[in-house]
Amino acid sequence: MRQYYAITSILLALSVGSALAAETTKPSVARGREIFMKVGCYHCHGTQGQGSGAGLRLAPDPLPAEAIAQFIRATTSTMPAYSAEVLSDSQVADIAAYLGSIPAARSPDTIPALKGLKPTQ
After folding, report:
1. % of residues, the chain, pLDDT over 90
2. Does 1.10.10.10 match the CATH number of domain 24-103?
3. In this structure, how many other beta carbons lie within 10 angstroms of the beta carbon of residue 50?
4. Residue spans per domain, the chain
5. How confident is the model at residue 119 (pLDDT cuts 50, 70, 90)?
6. Read out DSSP for 45-81?
7. If residue 103 lies in a helix (H) or strand (E), which one and from where to where?
8. Which is nearest to 102 in space by CA: 55, 53, 49?
9. Are 60 and 103 in contact (CB under 8 A)?
10. Among 16, 32, 55, 96, which is least packed by CB within 10 angstroms?
């Protein structure tokens, strides 16, 4: 009976450890935002991934993390390349999670101060 409890305890510890490991590797919006700001992505792409004259719009609806990683590792643009040693695949997944969490801009018609205004040409 003692052996049964020992084996059960070991299996329980392994399953809890596996669950914790899976939880820590799950992409995180908060970590992604922190990395996006710390690495300096926002300088060209804006704090909300909205893009600017220096960088493309990344959000909403970003590329999948794998495509982002492939681009930033072998970019041919003016953007600096980020090797896996500088920005790991899990960090790229976090950035993709952050960009994916950014909602689309509201329609001007839903903003009372702008409702009904016609664009100037």
Report:
1. 61
2. no
3. 16
4. 24-103
5. confident
6. H-TTS---SSS----SSPPPHHHHHHHHHS--SSSPP
7. none
8. 49
9. yes
10. 16
Do 52 and 37 touch, CB atoms closer than 8 A? no
Element containing residue 16 per DSSP (H, E): helix 2-25
| CA-based nearest residue to 96, from 55, 117, 67 | 67
b/e 2-29 (16+ beta carbons within 10 angstroms → b): eeeeeeeeeeeeeeeeeeeeeeeeebbb
**Helix (H), strand (E) at residue 90:** helix 89-101
Answer whether residue 121 shows pLDDT above 80: no
Residue 78 has pLDDT above 50, yes or no: yes
Q: Which pair of structure tokens corresponds to residue 53?
A: 């004259």
Q: What is the pLDDT of residues 21-40, one digit of tens each?
A: 444 589 999 999 999 999 99
- Average confidence score pLDDT of the chain: 84
